[in-house]
Amino acid sequence: MFVCAACGLVYELALVALGSYLIGNSITQASIVLSVMVFAMGVGSLAAKPLQDRAAAAFAVVEGALALAGGVSVLALYAAFAWFDVYATALVAVAFAVGALIGAEIPLLMTLLQRIRKQDAGSAVADLFAADYVGALIGGLAFPFLLLPVFGHIKGALLTGVVNAVAGIAVVLWLFRRQVGRGTRIALVSGMAAVLAVLGGTYALADGFEVAARHALYGDAAAHASGERTRP
């Protein structure tokens, strides 16, 4: 579960970092992303209430959607900036979508923890927050020291989406396998495989996309420069 929390924080940091890279006003970008995402988390928590009867399957679907939305978020925003000139609107939309999905995780996980461990609400909240904070530490350190310098913004977010998808389905099939039937398990695995295929295919095309976007922004010289290139 802490892996899912780590991925959520990485998405958040990636959006802030991309905005700072493209726009340059880091304080404004951080304020927009954080405020929209925190608000959206509350909306997502409320939206997840009707799903608690099928919490395990709903959690897997939420994780798949989050992996896809968070994984392609940087690429989508970079495209919005390079070609469509709608970066601010796209940033708010992406931050809201990712935040809402992160928020939907919390009530679903609490419901599942109470079912499998027969815990009261206070104990479930304590366990959930402990895993969440450990994940925040891991994600907060992994982004600036591993993902960003080694893979860059675009590929780093896509890899995080892959980890998110694998962790999400693993949690359901391992910890909560008794909460879902065989047919549901097959459907969830198939859906997550489709998410992984999309993320993997996008990862394979990421370098070409980056060159095209740089060409649109800066022209041939910047698009093909290799010596002093800073990856988004």
UniProtKB/TrEMBL annotation:
SUPFAM superfamilies: MFS general substrate transporter. InterPro entries: MFS_trans_sf. Signal peptide: none annotated. The keyword DNA repair does not apply. Keywords: Membrane, Transmembrane, Transmembrane helix. The chain crosses the membrane at residues 29-48, 55-81, 87-113, 125-151, 157-176, 188-206. This is Spermidine synthase. It comes from Actinomadura darangshiensis.
